[in-house]
Amino acid sequence: MEGQEGSVKMIQEAIERLIEENREYG
Question: Half-sphere exposure of 7 toward its Cβ, with a 13 Å CA cutoff?
Fold first, then answer.
């Protein structure tokens, strides 16, 4: 379970970065 939670956090961070990049280019 702990491993899954860690993966989710990494995925959320990656998504947030993509959103920030989209805002900059948008």
Answer: 4
